Amino acid sequence: MSRLDQPAILGPSVLDLDYEQEADRIAARLREIVARQLHRRGLVVAISGGIDSSTSIALAVRALGPDRVFALILPERDSSDDSAARANILASHLGVRTETVDIAPALEAIGCYRARDAAVRNTVPEYGDGWKFKIVIDGGTEGRINRFRLVAETPAGELVERDLALADYLAIVAATNFKQRIRKTLEYFHADRLNYAVVGTPNRLEYDQGFFVKNGDGSADVKPIAHLYKSQVYAMARHLGLPERVCAAVPTTDTYSLSQGQDEFYFALPYQQMDLALWALNHDRPASELAAALGISEAQAEAVYEDIRNKRRTTRYLHMPPVLAGDVPELD
Q1: pTM over cut 0.90
Q2: How far is CA 170 from CA 165, 166, 314, in A?
Q3: Domains, the chain, ordered by start
């Protein structure tokens, strides 16, 4: 789209789509990918009850029918009970086969919770049984480098918030990344068993900004919604007639024991505003236009743009395939 073809006013309408046409296009592309490129019989999708996995599996069913789509529900110790409930409602609505596996014992055995809790106690020594926690970011929207803070809640409900040292942040993230990687191991077990392909479920915001775990939720054979902004995914879910309980789900990481929004942990703004910011940057709209659209200062808008650029630079590694030290031209 050239600058002359772009909408004059920057607002939510720039993300409008013909959702029926787009759903048909994605379904046709999925059929082609599964049959002709991947040579598989169906698709495996891990569903969390969130909007992205829900929309992805609905599109898979539209493409192949429910008999050729297999759903996995993979809760663990920190998962919200409502996530599994929504996932089961969705699976019943779509008529797909499901299997539920509690991955907590595997995570316990591999040391996920132990390593995570040790790093948390470096920041909050009193942290123990009955406590909950999450990680939040601070600084990006003010033009400063993001810093990480740990928010913990005592069994009595009192909040403790402290700065998180980089080494402890990295240790906590490394430990919790086991969750996505164990889930992906199960997805590929069933894909191998059924001769199916694995669906990845990132939306455009997550895919662009590197909000995924390499060889975890970032690993997949096909990613049907990676080109759709989060707002478009919500609209697609409603167009496809998914249950209201799914369509109304608030985006969370569902990774830490305290409830946590994605904007607290990773993105500079709530998803509706981040979608608009990403679209605006992708279409060379000046920060002054974004500032007017979001009701923020031009300096804050510039900081949001810079935060997007920084995340693209720092997460480029996540998008890279393995780098070979020599050429293997026969497989190019």
Answers
A1: yes
A2: 9, 6, 14
A3: 16-110+170-319 (3.40.50.620), 112-169 (no CATH)
